[in-house]
User: What shape does this take?
Amino acid sequence: MSNAFVIDAHAHFGYVGAFFTPECEATHLLAAMDKAGISHAICMDQLTVLEGAAAGLEPLRDLFEASGHRVYYLGTFDPRRASACMEALRQAKDWPGFVGLKLHPSMHGVPAEDPVYKQAWRFAADHNLAIMSHSWSVSSYNPVQFLSTPERFELHVREFPQVHFVLGHAGGRGSGRYQAVRMANEYPHVYLDFAGDIFDYRLLEKLVQSVPVEKILFGSDIPWMDPRSHLTRVLLADLEDSVKGQILRGNAIRVYRLAVS
Amino acid sequence: MLEERIRMMTQERLELAKKLRFYDCNVWLGRPEGFPLAEEIPPERLNEVLDERLITGGFVSHWRGKTVSPQQGNESVLQDLRRQTKDLFAAWTGLPLFPSELGPVPGSTETPKEVRGVRIFPKSHHFPMTDWCIGSLCEWLIDRRMPLFVWHTELDWPSIYQIAKRYSKLSIVIETQVQKILYHTRPLFLLMRDCRNVLLELSNFVGQGFVEYAAREFGPDRLIFGSFLPVNDPLVAMGMIIDAEIPEEQKALIAGGNLRRLATEVRI
Assistant: This one.
């Protein structure tokens, strides 16, 4: 642990009905972080991703404390429960370890450009918080992904230039990637994490050629993905060590304004 | 300090990757289908791409075997492999043996020595994965001690269970593409528990702690490294094996030992 330095900018814990995984509890997250040399993580639990912050951010606050301030957390804004979520987010805004909001338009069934999200963006702007959202490409086998294509966020991105906005999964494996790359180049406050199964051959090298390196964040999507599935491809990528350092650590500290040295 | 640590971690992984001698069951030539960002590997660059990712050889398939026809794909992969210098074999695309089909498909012609495995696409090529339909192909494979490969997206779980039970001498490699296998771990793990002849390819077997879990529950002799090049970066599956908390001998089996054994056991 003493040598751990990686920051996983996209982590989860909690049981998931859709599949079996042998390791999904908070204790597993901490063990997995130790195995992969991860010092800190940005985390959301499965319950609040599905039901929003209204379901209770206390377990995340408690994990931040129990982990020795290693596991920071995001509060999910579920547009179907907007008022209750905003109330929970207001309550959590001064809690230690709370560093931003999470959006998931595909899961919540409300397109990213919908005006209902404006209150969440306003809240993030007012309280110096980042927003990370699920983003993906139009998918033939998972139709709801069309709700989270990167360009759908653009209206809010333009209106709130002070909000650090992370396109989780970097727009996915198809046309969404082109949009994500375009937006990361066009807007100084738009960033990309490569969590999830966007396992493209030489992805890191391609991303570094396409966007400024400070825009790229290491993320795993644990427990969907073991962080070790992403780590070696960063370490063995054809990139300078200083660039790998930014991707694995420095960029997340800056984007999420983490209180780590 | 940080860069020094990165250099050290990189070096450790490079050394272990070389030592484990990765041997890949899932390399593809031709134009990938369904992955718009993936770029085809020109056959003349295959050796270079594999070297760059520290892969010593393996089984190569051709996308045409799925997208055009098994005959076209099988012919293409053989042509492309004849230009290679690495330790590479072909995985052909198979069909039910009846009605008997012309061209280079299993059962219709003498099998070239380069062929060491057969993959089927029951959903794409419109046949059920049932005994009455592919039983004769299974017998054909058993006679040659040749493994059967199938993507999990091309099978249905009740049928694969029946086939694995009925043909217990057939090595069946379940492949974790072309979508997440994660959502199918409940039937997959039951199948592996009940059928010792089922093996698992690892290119998308990336859930938290999966390699340790599968090695412990089912045995390291049943896990096979596959990259799914050029869609996936081999370093993804390699990273899961390199960093797994299992003994190095087990890592070597998974990285290449198990597939080399399958390749050498084939009788043509």
Remarks:
- Residues 132 and 265 of chain B are 27 Å apart (CA to CA).
